[in-house]
Design brief:
4 helices
């Protein structure tokens, strides 16, 4: 979970804030969203996670994902 949190905490300040989430969303294909659409999605996600005004702490992040159907796949290329 710490590694996953670190991926979302883009600026490394120990909080997943709206700005972090916006950057991650853009990198994950959200660049096709308009600014308004992206803002709406980020606000909805932060609200559903119970984020405080300044964002999610590691503890809150873990609680938000505890019951979420999250799967992590790692693809390792074969060496010739």
């Amino acid at each position: 979970m710490k590694h996953l949190f670190a991926m979302w905490d883009v600026n490394g300040d120990g909080i997943v804030c709206k700005e972090d989430l916006e950057l991650v969303m853009r990198q994950a294909g959200g660049s096709q969203l308009s600014e308004d659409e992206l803002s709406f999605v980020v606000d909805k996600v932060m609200g559903e996670c119970g984020a405080e005004e300044n964002g999610l702490t590691f503890k809150e992040f873990c609680q938000a994902l505890r019951d979420a159907p999250v799967e992590l796949y790692v693809e390792i290329p074969l060496m010739d």
